[in-house]
């Protein structure tokens, strides 16, 4: 993605300042959320945006004064008690429920191990609040080409539905332009 201008902001609570479209990224820790955002924007955003004490903040990344990438905290999700497991963390939930400018949620999954219980819970939760979402099946470079269709079949069979998805590799830059096109078509 050609990025001429980039602006970072961190919020401990969702507050909206303008009418630009937003695209949120969520995912189980280690699925590659940061890598995808970095590859998409050609920037090492994590290095700039990770402030100590703000792991529970929403990071917004304003691109070219046109739209926002919203990096949502989901880490710790796996560690919470069983009772709480159906929930994202509070700030992520509040944002997903309240944002009026959120076009799509990208749910980052590791294609090799997907769907994990956490992936399934996130999908169920997004459905329950009627949010549009697209599954990003990341790390496709870990799957042999001749096994890819089978792997995807297994994933959708376990999910019980063929949700919209984009298969990518952040590190090998595979299909990232598909993700880019999708975003730009909805800005
Ligand atoms: N093989 C492979 N590894 C990846 C890919 N994307 C991310 N990773 C690795 O997965 C690990 C977690 O990535 P990171 O972006 O920090 O995940 P996050 O916790 O979801 O933000 C890192 O070691 C990355 O290098 C990918 O497309 N292919
Ligand atoms: Mg990360």
From TrEMBL:
GO biological process, alphabetically ordered: division septum assembly
GO molecular function: GTP binding; metal ion binding
Keyword vocabulary terms for this entry: Cell cycle, Cell division, GTP-binding, Magnesium, Metal-binding, Nucleotide-binding, Septation
Names of required cofactors: Mg(2+)
Annotated InterPro entries: G_ENGB_dom, GTP-bd, GTP-bd_ribosome_bio_YsxC, P-loop_NTPase, Small_GTP-bd
Claim: Iron-sulfur is one of the keywords in the record: no
Domain EngB-type G: 19-187
Task of the protein: Necessary for normal cell division and for the maintenance of normal septation.
HAMAP family assigned to the protein according to its UniProt record, in alphabetical order: GTPase_EngB
Family as reported in the entry's similarity comment: Belongs to the TRAFAC class TrmE-Era-EngA-EngB-Septin-like GTPase superfamily. EngB GTPase family.
Protein name: Probable GTP-binding protein EngB
């Amino acid at each position: 993605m050609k990025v001429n201008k980039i602006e970072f902001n961190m919020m401990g609570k969702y507050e909206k300042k303008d009418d630009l479209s937003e695209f949120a990224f969520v995912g189980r820790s280690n699925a590659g959320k940061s890598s995808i955002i970095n590859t998409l924007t050609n920037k090492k955003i994590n290095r700039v945006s990770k402030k100590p004490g703000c792991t529970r903040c929403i990071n917004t990344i304003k691109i070219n004064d046109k739209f926002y990438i919203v990096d949502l905290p989901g880490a710790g999700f796996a560690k919470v008690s069983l009772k709480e497991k159906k929930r994202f963390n509070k700030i992520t939930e509040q944002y997903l429920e309240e944002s009026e400018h959120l076009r799509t949620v990208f749910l980052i999954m590791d294609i090799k191990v997907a769907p994990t219980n956490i992936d399934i819970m996130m999908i169920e939760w997004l459905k329950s609040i009627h949010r549009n979402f697209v599954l990003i099946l990341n790390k496709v470079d870990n799957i042999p080409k001749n096994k890819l269709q089978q792997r995807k079949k297994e994933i959708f069979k376990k999910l019980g539905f063929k949700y919209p998805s984009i298969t990518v590799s952040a590190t090998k830059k595979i299909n990232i332009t598909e993700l880019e096109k999708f975003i730009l078509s909805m800005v």
